[in-house]
Automatic annotation (TrEMBL), chain A:
This is Cytoplasmic tRNA 2-thiolation protein 2. GO terms for biological process: protein urmylation; tRNA wobble position uridine thiolation. One of its GO terms (molecular function) is tRNA binding. The gene is NCS2. Residues 123-135 have a biased composition (Basic and acidic residues).
Length: 510, 122
C-alpha cells in the first residue's frame, strides 16, 4: 500500500453504503419525515434537538460529581466552578449554546422545534436541575467563558476577541438573561508575568527586556517544524485555560472538541508520538501548583461533544441561528500532520460516517502498558519513564556517530550542510537535563527534524524563553557565562537534581 | 414566482463561514435554466445548437453554477471531484440533501438551498 491520500481511491477498497437505512421516516418518533441523517440514522428536526442535548449530557454529567455515583444516581453537584473554553469555532460555539440552554436557563432547545411554541417555558418538571438564576445548582459561582486569542503567533491573523465577546454577551440578552464571566486571554500570556502572577506563584527571576509577544514568537520560531508549532500552540492554549480555571477554583473545564476533531487529535497525536497520553485526549484530570505552591484540587477536562460530530454541530448552529466567529486553524500548513489528518477524517466522515466514532471509541480504550512516573513539565500530562533512553535506541540521532562513520553511510542531502547539535555544552552537570522531565511528544515537538528542512531560523539568540509554568518548576537565573546575557541556565529549586540547561534542548539546530 | 417557464428561481444561503468565499454575502437569490447541458457547462445556454445533450437542472448543476458565477475565491475550498468538498453540508428546503438524492435532486422553482461549512472546527 502506498502513502497516497487514502480518500482518492477509497471506493476501490470499500463499498459505499447508502447514506441512510431503509426509509426517510424519523427513527425516533417514527412519524415525521426525517430532516437529517446522522451515521445512517434518520431524524426529524423535532427529534434532532433532544438527541444532541442528550448526547451532550451523557458525555458530561457522569463526570460532574467528584466521585462516581453508586447504583442510585445522586443529584449533580460539582466541587467547584465551571470554565467553558471557547475558540470561536463551530464545536465550542455549539457547546456554549448547549451549556447555556441545559444548565443556565437560556431559552430551551425544545422551543426551537417546530412543535413547540416559542413562549413555552422550559421543561421544569423533566429537568429539575435546570436553573434560571445567576448560577446553577450544579456548579459553584458564576461560570466563566475563556477565549485564548492566538493571533500573536500568526502574523496577519485577525484578532477575534471582540467578536467572540459578542457571542458570549448574546446570552445576556436572551430571556431569561444569563451573564457568563468572559475572560479573554492571549497566547502570549503564557510568557507574561502579569498574567502568571494572577494564577501562579513567582519563584524565579524572569528574563529581562523581552515582551510577552516577543517571547512567544521566539519560542515558536525555535521549534523545528510547522507541525511542532501547531502542537506547541495547542499545549499553550490548554494550559492557559487550566491555570485560569485553577485560579477560579474550577472543578471542570469544558472543551468543544467534537467527535470529528477528537478523532483528528487522536490520530495526529499518535502520529506525533503522543500515544502515551491518548486516553487523556478523551478525558483527563489535572492538578496545578497553586499560588502558595500546594497542588490545586483536581480539575476535570471534559469534552462533552465527544460523541457529536461536526455535521450535527453545524446543523445545530444553523437551526439555532448561532453565529460562528471562526477560528485560526493553526494546523501547521497544508502538508502538516494536522491538516492531512483533518482532510482524511473529514472525507472519511462523509463517506463512512460510522468509522469516525469507531476511531474515537477505540482510542479511548487504549491504556499504556506501563504507568506514568511523573508529569511533563511543558504540557503537564503524565509522562513516561525513560523517554531519552528509548529515543536513543530507536532513532538516528547523529550522523557523526561512530558506527555511521565507519559504515560509510552518507548524510541525506537535506542534512548535508547541517552541523549536529553538540550533545553536551559546558553545563555544570551535563547528565542532568530538561529532557527527563518531558513527555515523548513534547520532546519530539522541541527537537524533531523535519524531512522538509526546518522552518525559518530567525533568531540569533541561543536560548529560547519557555512558558512561565515551566520556569515555575525550574528556577531560571541568568548565567554569567555569556556576556550577551542570552544564555540561560536552569536550576531546580531544592536539591538541585535538575541543574540543567533548558537552552541546550532548545538550541537552534543549525 | 418565476414568470419564465424556462428558468427557475432559487434562494441560496451560505453558513458556517462558507459565505466568505461568496463575497461574504450569506443570502443570494439566483435564476438558473430549467434545462441544462448534460456536461454541467454553465457558460452556454441550452438554446445553443452546439449542445444538444441536456437534462433537467439538478443540484450538481447548481454547484457548478455557484462555482462559475458566484464564487469569488479559492474554488478548491468549495468543490472537489464534481461535488462539494467533504465537510460542506447541503440542506434542500431544510432537509439534509442525503435524504433527497444529493446531487441528483431535481430542482424546483422556489427551492431553498443551504450550504454550510463545518471546516471552521471546534
Ligand atoms: Zn422524529
Ligand atoms: Zn509533554
Amino acid at each position: 500500500m502506498s502513502c497516497e491520500n487514502p480518500s482518492v481511491d477509497k471506493d476501490a477498497l470499500m463499498a459505499r453504503r447508502p447514506k441512510f437505512d431503509k426509509t426517510k421516516q424519523c427513527v425516533k418518533c417514527k412519524e415525521r419525515t426525517g430532516n437529517v441523517v446522522i451515521r445512517h440514522a434518520v431524524y426529524c428536526k423535532s427529534c434532532f434537538f433532544p438527541l444532541i442535548s442528550t448526547r451532550f449530557r451523557k458525555s458530561l454529567e457522569p463526570s460532574v460529581n467528584p466521585t462516581p455515583d453508586g447504583p442510585r444516581r445522586k443529584a449533580l453537584k460539582a466541587s467547584g466552578s465551571l470554565l467553558v473554553g471557547l475558540s470561536g469555532g463551530l464545536g465550542s460555539t455549539v457547546m456554549l449554546d448547549l451549556v447555556a440552554k441545559t444548565y443556565f436557563g437560556a431559552p430551551s432547545v425544545a422551543d426551537l422545534g417546530e412543535e413547540a411554541p416559542p413562549s413555552k417555558p422550559k421543561g421544569g418538571k423533566e429537568h429539575p436541575r435546570n436553573m434560571t438564576g445567576k448560577d446553577s445548582e450544579i456548579w459553584r459561582g458564576v461560570p466563566a467563558v475563556c477565549y485564548v486569542e492566538v493571533c500573536g503567533a500568526f502574523p496577519g491573523a485577525e484578532d477575534r476577541t471582540e467578536r467572540v465577546r459578542q457571542v458570549v454577551e448574546s446570552y445576556a440578552t436572551t430571556s431569561p438573561p444569563f451573564a457568563f464571566d468572559f475572560i479573554p486571554l492571549r497566547l502570549e500570556d503564557a510568557f507574561d508575568l502579569e498574567w502568571w502572577k494572577g494564577v501562579g506563584e513567582l519563584l524565579f527571576t524572569p528574563p529581562p527586556s523581552s515582551t510577552p509577544i516577543l517571547a512567544l514568537q521566539a519560542y515558536l520560531s525555535s521549534l523545528p517544524t510547522q507541525t511542532a508549532i501547531h502542537s506547541a500552540t495547542q499545549t499553550l492554549v490548554r494550559l492557559l485555560l487550566l491555570y485560569t480555571a485553577a485560579s477560579r477554583r474550577a472543578s471542570h473545564v469544558l472543551l468543544g472538541t467534537s467527535l470529528t476533531s477528537l478523532s483528528v487529535n487522536l490520530i495526529s497525536g499518535i502520529a506525533q508520538g503522543a500515544g502515551f497520553s491518548v486516553a487523556e485526549e478523551a478525558m483527563e484530570e489535572w492538578r496545578g501548583e497553586g499560588k502558595s505552591g500546594e497542588l490545586t484540587p483536581p480539575i476535570r477536562i471534559v469534552r462533552p461533544l465527544r460523541d457529536v460530530g461536526m455535521k450535527e454541530c453545524a446543523i445545530w448552529a444553523w437551526w439555532c441561528g448561532l453565529r460562528i466567529v471562526g477560528r485560526e486553524r493553526y494546523l501547521g500548513g497544508t502538508q502538516g500532520i494536522g491538516s492531512l489528518t483533518r482532510n482524511f477524517i473529514t472525507g472519511l466522515e462523509r463517506d463512512y460516517p460510522a468509522t469516525v466514532s469507531t476511531i474515537a471509541r477505540t482510542c479511548a480504550k487504549l491504556t499504556p502498558k506501563e504507568g506514568s512516573d511523573g508529569v511533563c513539565l511543558l504540557c503537564q500530562r503524565p509522562a513516561q519513564h525513560g523517554v531519552q533512553e528509548w529515543k536513543s535506541r530507536t532513532s538516528i540521532r547523529s550522523y557523526n556517530h561512530a558506527s555511521f562513520s565507519s559504515s560509510g553511510h552518507e548524510r541525506p542531502p537535506h542534512l548535508a550542510n547541517a552541523t549536529d547539535r553538540p550533545q553536551h555544552r559546558t553545563e555544570p552537570s551535563p547528565s542532568s537535563h530538561l529532557t527527563p522531565h518531558l513527555c515523548y511528544a513534547c520532546h519530539t515537538t522541541l527537537t524533531s527534524r523535519s524531512s522538509r528542512g526546518n522552518v525559518k531560523q530567525t533568531s540569533d539568540s541561543k536560548v529560547v524563553p519557555l512558558p512561565l509554568w515551566v520556569g515555575a518548576s525550574l528556577s531560571l537565573v541568568p548565567t554569567s557565562e555569556d556576556s550577551s546575557g542570552e544564555v540561560w541556565a536552569t536550576r531546580r529549586m531544592g536539591d538541585g537534581e535538575m541543574k540543567a540547561a533548558i537552552g541546550d534542548l532548545l538550541l537552534n539546530d543549525s | 414566482m418565476s414568470t419564465d417557464s424556462n428558468t427557475m428561481f432559487l434562494k441560496i444561503e451560505f453558513g458556517g463561514g462558507l459565505e466568505l468565499l461568496f463575497s461574504n454575502q450569506r443570502s443570494h437569490r439566483i435564476t438558473i435554466p430549467s434545462t441544462v447541458p448534460a456536461d454541467n457547462n454553465t457558460s452556454v445556454t441550452t438554446k445553443d445548437a452546439a449542445s444538444p445533450a441536456t437534462r433537467p437542472a439538478d443540484v450538481t448543476y447548481l454547484l457548478h453554477h455557484l462555482r462559475d458565477h458566484l464564487l469569488k475565491e479559492r474554488e478548491e475550498l468549495f468543490m472537489e471531484n464534481g461535488t462539494v468538498r467533504p465537510g460542506i453540508l447541503v440542506l434542500i428546503n431544510d432537509t439534509d440533501w442525503e435524504l433527497e438524492g444529493e446531487g441528483e435532486y431535481l430542482l424546483k422553482d422556489g427551492d431553498e438551498i443551504v450550504l454550510i461549512s463545518t471546516l471552521h472546527g471546534g
